[in-house]
Amino acid sequence: MKVVLYAVRAARGQKALISIDWETDRKYWNDRASEIVRLREEIPLGEGERMCRMLEEEWASETRSPAGKGLKEESGDRERAWRGAEEKQFVHGGWAERLVYHARSAGYAGEMERIKLREGAAAEPRLLEAAGRAAARLAGRSLLREEAQQLLDAELPGSSGVSAFAALQLAALLGAVQLTAAVAPDAVAAPASAGLRGWAERALRRARLLRGRGAGGRAQVLRCRRCGSADKLRRTDCAACGRQACAYCEACLTMGRSRECELLVIGLPTAGAALSVPVPAEAPLLPTRRQTATAPFPTSIPTASPAPVIRTASVPSHSKNIRQHLIKRWGLSPAQSDAAAQALAFLEAPRASKGRSFLLWAVTGAGKTEMIFPLLDSVLSRGGRALVATPRRDVVLELAPRLAKAFPDRNIAVLYGGSPDRWREGELTLATTHQLLRFQGAFDLVLIDELDAFPYHNDPMLHYAAAKCGKPDGRTVYLSATPPAALQREASRGRLAYARVPVRYHRYPLPVPARLKLPSVYQVLAKQTIPQRLLQPIRRSVDRGAQVFLFVPYVKQVEPMVRLLRNQAKNLGLPGNAIAGTSSPDEERGEKVVAFRDRTIQLLVTTTILERGVTIPRSDVFILDAHNSLFDAASLVQMAGRAGRSGDDPFGVVYYGAPEWTRSQRNSIRQIRTMNAAARRKGYLKAD
Amino acid sequence: MRLNVGSWFASTKRECPICGRDASQGASAAAAVPIPIRHPAPKRALASLCGLCRQAIPWIVHPVCRVCGRAESCEDCIRRTQRSYAISRCAVRYTDAMKDWLALYKYRGNEGVETILAAMLAFALERLQAATSQASFPIITAVPLAPERLRERGFNQAERLACRLSEWYGMAYRPLLHRLRHTEKQSLKTRRSRVVDMRGNFAAVSAALFSGNIILLDDVYTTGSTLDECARVLRQASEPHAESRIYGLLWARS
């Protein structure tokens, strides 16, 4: 989109601004500024922002040094001398001509228009009210223009005659929302103000500024402000702003297109409350918007706005009491409540000594979900906002009713692609990971489930999103059965606070995988015979009435394996149709999992797609080709964690079938043994 | 930061521009699917697809309808008595997979897909050349977009694709048409209202007096009403005695 670039001058200085709704700005500045000038033509949003920044920098350096002083040193070649002279003329000719100068050097016509100040332009209470409501609704969100418009169209009744843009622009002027380009250069750090270093830095910046202008802009790294990626931008012709190299971000394209001329609306947290009271006439003349916009993000979330008053919780202070309270109120096991108590202490500590993150390392089947309830309760009861983010949509849908039951009087927003709650304001938000991109600085507690699972795994965008959606002073809790190596290291070095839950809720140890020396799946399929060494243990599992997970590394091996097993169905003591296979491209996966749950399917051949989430009470696990590099230690632990989930059958068996014995296999077994040992040491295991 | 020497030697991963999966995996399977295009540039573009995506392209290799290039017999072309364009050719059938591909480009705005779609159009262009036994066409133009829609989307897909083709096949791209009215999306309308609504939607660019054969490009052919109306306007604007024919070139035929 295109915006109006304008500058205002008042008693305390001058300011360059962009506007998406010019009339609003004109009215706003009418009785606040002594002079207003604007560029007659509208310019692309990104360009406008860039020019604003350059103007601000120049004006700032001018106030530091007397006019024209710095120019002498730089009059090297002819072009620069000419430019210096031109600049000098502007310095003396007037503050506003700079606007024209920058517009012309960027290739625009650069016609300036002086705006006449009118007498007694009435302030519009309706617009102010709309801006207040817009700011309240947008608080903590980070939305593209279209999304913000949708949200505001629902919020602002059509009859009031206030457009969404006008409301947004006024809210921005009052410092309650930030309007920026969705893809923008990395902000340059503000120069050091004093001393030799400050002088040198200023000189360098100035030199770069001058050189940069000739080449048509400084060489800066562009970055998507919504998802933080800088390496997946593509520049194309843009009909919306008319630029030939308008960059858009391909990393977060599924959430709408973020581009250089696209508006990103960032609602500052809790700004709505400040706006709901009528703004007095001596409202801050020069709002903080530009400052916040130029600060490096993701720390650009302004810290100035007051955090909501968090009441001290009425949780019993003594740690033993907390434990008792947790066991009683939430039905947690001793191991669960110990870990939850540690997490609670971390959340309620006034100043985090070990950073703002906490790792809750709970084995598979430990009952992670139950443990998050007391954490959420603690934050919600103190009036904070909490978020639970989980990688998969089906987990969101499964968790939503449980949360609703646990917190019946709380407002819960459930977000996923195409969810009806899209714009709902919740004290508690449950979302898939991608939805986090639409928030910024919104939550006091961010709970991230399975951060080593597929979408987070190796995706810096989602890590960025998870980092920015929390408030600056908010806390983040990671939940995982298999934390990534980096986090494990941080935890063991004491840089990350953490708690371990080494035992399952039923208080039996984790099944330790047994080794089964087998030929590779490739060979098995080539020979079309299943080795007896594999058939017999499967038969034993079937005979004891357990259901069997059979994991293979590749999708293409699933169907041939199923066929091969069906040929052997009689030897396994199973009807042929009780053997099935599923994988990621399978459209009937949902139905097959349901059939597996209600025991219509007894043996399911699958890939890592089912390594998490599916819980079968009485089940055994066979991992074929456990040496394959697709199965790392974490996914082996997860797959092994499918066995023995229920208290009725806690000793399910797990086999690693492979021709070789690899480091990931050894690693995974060591992890499982360590957890079992820790559980025994702490006396969590059921005495038997 | 751990030093991973292995990564210095690992072959670079190629991502399939459509599905984002690793395209170098299963390269042998992909090689088994031939690319039915002669020109090397679009051929190369399509070779960057992964095997699965390459298999998913429903090429119209043998058009049954000699007029519109549909893969099955076509009632519309039999029924229609007056036609402003000579013939048209389409690259693929408009299957669900192709709908997704087009949506990826048109609505989601993934302009990385552009090259692939243009390369697919090269197939239709080569079919058109064969059907008309002409080696080249001097001018290519595209169905325009209404200004509002253009601003909203950021690009005109037909124009972009036409520009790509013009570079490959040495044709001149000329914007010859304006869109006057902003109609609702074609895909939301019935057949009858499509034909009626289309009247008066387009106008020729004022200075456009032209002759010779023109290729008119659009993304999807459903009833042919857009194509026919554009061709009619172009014929009216062309020099009265010049022998000018207008050929349709479409990415998909529904």
Layout of SSEs?
The complex is a heterodimer of chains A (688) and B (254).
Chain A: E1 2-10, E2 13-19, H1 22-30, E3 35-39, E4 43-44, H2 45-64, H3 78-93, H4 97-105, E5 112-115, H5 125-138, E6 142-144, H6 145-155, H7 164-173, E7 177-181, E8 183-185, H8 195-214, E9 222-224, E10 233-236, E11 246-249, E12 263-267, H9 271-276, H10 289-294, H11 319-330, H12 334-348, E13 357-362, H13 368-381, E14 386-390, H14 393-406, E15 412-415, E16 428-432, E17 443-449, H15 460-468, E18 470-480, H16 485-492, E19 497-501, E20 514-517, H17 521-527, H18 532-543, E21 547-551, H19 558-567, H20 569-572, E22 579-581, H21 589-597, E23 603-606, E24 619-624, H22 633-640, E25 654-658, H23 663-681
Parallel strand pairs in A: 13-18, 13-19, 14-16, 14-17, 15-16, 17-18, 20-25, 21-23, 21-24, 22-23, 24-25
Antiparallel strand pairs in A: 1-2, 1-3, 1-4, 3-5, 6-12, 7-12, 8-9, 10-11
Chain B: H1 6-9, H2 27-31, H3 40-47, H4 51-55, H5 75-79, E1 88-93, H6 96-106, H7 114-132, E2 139-142, H8 147-153, H9 157-169, E3 172-173, E4 177-179, H10 191-198, E5 202-204, E6 214-221, H11 225-237, E7 246-253
Parallel strand pairs in B: 1-7, 2-3, 2-6, 6-7
Antiparallel strand pairs in B: 4-5
Helix pairs in contact in B: 3-7, 7-9
